[in-house]
Amino acid sequence: MEKKPPGKTPSTQSKDGVGCSGGVKRPHSDSSTPPLEKTANINPRNAQVGIKMVIIHRCHPDIKLDQTQVDMIQAKLLVAVDANPQGETPPQFLYSKFALGIFWITCANESSKAWLMWTVS
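Above: the chain sequence. Below: its structure as tokens.
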């Protein structure tokens, strides 16, 4: 039996790419980045960034919105969306949330942002 010199530990991976677990490394791609069509929908939530808007109390930060006020704002916004003239594109929103006394709304486009600003004012 051959003795190994003290202080040296065997390498966990050999130079041919085979590790101690018996796995093989993935071959490296020739192109540096994948084609655009493959990366476009990796995370669908981030694919539509939108325009982030907030609705806050006039005296913010001294006074913050409560859940009742946010529920009323949402109800009035829905009535306003439903009252949109027929044939016109209604405002489009991607996301909304209520946190820390702030009502966050993400508009899908500039026209929805303008509609929201006019309606809330």
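The two ends are 87 Å apart (CA to CA).
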